[in-house]
TrEMBL record:
<comment type="function">
    <text>Catalyzes the reversible isomerization of glucose-6-phosphate to fructose-6-phosphate.</text>
</comment>
<dbReference type="GO" id="GO:0004347">
    <property type="term" value="F:glucose-6-phosphate isomerase activity"/>
</dbReference>
<keyword id="KW-0312">Gluconeogenesis</keyword>
<dbReference type="InterPro" id="IPR023096">
    <property type="entry name" value="G6P_Isomerase_C"/>
</dbReference>
<keyword id="KW-0324">Glycolysis</keyword>
<feature type="active site" description="Proton donor">
    <location>
        <position position="355"/>
    </location>
</feature>
<dbReference type="InterPro" id="IPR046348">
    <property type="entry name" value="SIS_dom_sf"/>
</dbReference>
<comment type="similarity">
    <text>Belongs to the GPI family.</text>
</comment>
<keyword id="KW-0963">Cytoplasm</keyword>
<dbReference type="GO" id="GO:0006096">
    <property type="term" value="P:glycolytic process"/>
</dbReference>
<protein>
    <recommendedName>
        <fullName>Glucose-6-phosphate isomerase</fullName>
        <ecNumber>5.3.1.9</ecNumber>
    </recommendedName>
</protein>
<dbReference type="GO" id="GO:0005829">
    <property type="term" value="C:cytosol"/>
</dbReference>
<dbReference type="InterPro" id="IPR001672">
    <property type="entry name" value="G6P_Isomerase"/>
</dbReference>
<comment type="pathway">
    <text>Carbohydrate biosynthesis; gluconeogenesis.</text>
</comment>
<dbReference type="InterPro" id="IPR018189">
    <property type="entry name" value="Phosphoglucose_isomerase_CS"/>
</dbReference>
<dbReference type="GO" id="GO:0006094">
    <property type="term" value="P:gluconeogenesis"/>
</dbReference>
<comment type="pathway">
    <text>Carbohydrate degradation; glycolysis; D-glyceraldehyde 3-phosphate and glycerone phosphate from D-glucose: step 2/4.</text>
</comment>
Length: 545
């Protein structure tokens, strides 16, 4: 079944939301809190080891009711059923979208074009398990008989960001293997990493869904040449593994069939860390931890599929985001994890969210006349507080922000954790309440400033407040809770795409640049430069001189 093609702006509920926005936009969050003692309780969802407090948002009961009606009016329920049932919801590429199958239970049945894919999924999982166990235990050895010490993941986009983010996030659970990531076609990236590696003890994992990506093939080829300066063609079988849907190209590259891990076209690159694309994760933290990551994601899948929308965390996250994006005109959202281990989390979600919902043509093929995909950014707290929080507090832009934190730290240093979490709570409180002129004046009086000094300084010390935040408080950063957290955002992406009436699972927007780079590479390498605009032409001439 195809997804419905409902223009959200033409629904009755959109008109009601617009009117409601006009009525409520001037209300300060302070007022909303002081007029309802139950607000925090009402707008908090508790699920497994997650607490999701969305009370510090510019919403009332009526806002939520209207947004939930919007979800009904665009047939979100039907779309979710289609998503899980393997409908070709990636219509422009004619594909199902089933990263949920990668973390489903063995006995589940997930049909793609009438065929249950679960046996295949579990066959690959079994292969990942055997391979990673053998590498970690030292049973699999390099060409001179030494056990592996280093693993290099060669991939880009979804074939890099997911494994890189997760291995960093789960560093606490890591084994002895050192993992490295080569992604950029910038030769300085690969050469810098090779500089410190020993070919005898390094395993290379080439990850590319298509196995045609310029960056990945260039890096893999450079690495192969480097390796062949030390080992032989035959030794490649011991040192290279590949993850791809393209078995032909892998064979051409010369990777041994025993080290090939298939994936499927119904797994989008930016949702692929759950597949064999996560091989580097499994190597770094062991198969059991990798599997726990998948189990966590599966629990979110069940929560998303089965909970009422009013109690469904990804649905609520998505509706709030639509509220700010389409009614308040907020262009960006910040994601701030209060966990250094999650330092790559926002970068990872940038691809997931912006490659998915950065679209301006609706599902009927018309150019949209409303805003779609939000711009995502962020860095861990507390570092970000000392970098860009000034703008969130006192700038002119509205930036809804997700605060992600954990009740317990992993190393158990209570002193540090209490300080970290004090900042986490303080920021959402400060962003919500702000500081009024009266409060500033009182404070300055207490510091014995004169009237004229106070008059001069007070305007700069006022905080308007009323800045929306979500607080996601999780017990502990574990493979399972991380899997659950990532999947919450994945489903948020889905819900937003359905509401905006766009196709979230293609990425045609990255093609044009790739195409032109092909032509320009010839211009750089050949003596003649082909036809370009005057700026590009002059730049190329200058570069080639
Ligand atoms: O250029 C974008 C993209 O297609 C992403 O969607 C994908 O994650 C990345 O390139 C890498 O693609 P591949 O895994 O096929 O090398």
């Amino acid at each position: 079944m195809a997804l419905s093609k409902i223009n959200p702006q033409q629904t009755d509920i959109w008109k009601k939301l617009t009117a409601h926005f006009e009525e409520t936009k001037g209300t300060h969050l302070r007022t909303l809190f002081s007029s309802d003692a139950n607000r925090a309780e009402k707008f908090t969802l508790q699920w497994n080891d997650f607490l999701f407090d969305y009370s510090k948002n510019r919403i009332t009961d009526e806002t939520m009711q209207l947004l939930l009606q919007l979800a009904d009016e665009v047939n979100l329920k039907g779309a979710i059923d289609d998503y899980y049932a393997g409908g070709h919801i990636n219509e422009t590429e004619g594909r199902a979208v089933l990263h949920t199958a990668l973390r489903a239970k063995k006995d589940d049945e997930v049909l793609v074009d009438g065929v249950n894919v679960m046996p295949e999924v579990y066959e690959v999982k079994e292969h990942i398990k055997e391979f990673t166990n053998a590498v970690i235990s030292g049973e699999l050895k390099g060409y001179t008989g030494k056990p592996f010490t280093d693993v290099v993941n060669i991939g880009i986009g979804g074939s890099d960001l997911g494994p890189a983010m997760v291995t960093e996030a789960l560093k606490f659970y890591k084994n002895h293997l050192s993992v490295h990531f080569v992604s950029n076609v910038d030769g300085d990236h690969v050469h810098e990493i090779l500089k410190n590696l020993d070919p005898e003890t390094t395993l290379f994992v080439v990850v590319s869904k298509t196995f045609t990506t310029q960056e990945t093939l260039s890096n893999a080829t450079t690495i192969k040449k480097w390796f062949l300066k030390h080992g032989t063609q035959e030794d490649i079988a011991k040192h290279f593994a590949a993850v791809s849907t393209n078995s032909e190209k892998i064979a051409e590259f010369g990777i041994d069939a025993a080290n090939v891990f298939p994936m499927w076209d119904w797994v989008g690159g930016r949702f692929s860390l759950w597949s064999a694309v996560g091989l580097t994760i499994a190597l770094a933290v062991g198969y059991d931890n990798f599997n726990a990551l998948l189990e966590g994601a599966h629990e979110t899948d069940v929560h998303f599929k089965e909970s009422d929308f009013s109690e469904n965390i990804p649905v609520v996250m998505a509706l709030l985001s639509v509220w700010y994006n389409n009614f308040y005109g907020a262009e960006t959202e910040a994601i701030i994890p209060y966990a250094q281990y999650l330092s790559r989390f926002s970068a990872y979600l940038q691809q997931g969210i912006m490659e998915s919902n950065g679209k301006s043509v609706d599902r009927a093929g018309n150019v949209v006349n409303y805003e779609t995909g939000t711009i995502i950014w962020g860095e861990p707290g507390t570092n970000s507080q000392h970098a860009f929080f000034q703008l969130i507090h006192q700038g002119t832009k509205l930036i809804p922000t997700d605060f992600i934190g954990f009740k317990y730290s992993l190393h158990g240093d209570k002193d540090h954790h209490n300080k970290l979490m004090a900042n986490y709570f303080a920021q959402t409180e400060a962003l919500m309440n702000g500081k009024t002129k009266d409060e500033v004046v009182k404070e300055l009086k207490e510091k014995d400033l004169t009237e004229s000094e106070i008059d001069k300084l007070a305007p700069f010390k006022v905080f308007a407040g009323n800045k929306p935040t979500n607080t996601v408080l999780i017990d502990k950063l574990t493979p399972k809770s991380l899997g659950a957290l990532i999947a919450l955002y994945e489903h948020k992406i889905f819900v937003q795409g359905i509401i905006w009436n766009i196709f979230s699972y293609d990425q045609w927007g990255v093609e044009l640049g790739k195409q032109l780079a092909g032509t320009i590479l010839k211009d750089i390498e050949n003596s003649e430069i082909s036809d370009h605009d005057s700026s590009t032409l002059r730049l190329l001439q200058y570069f080639k001189k």
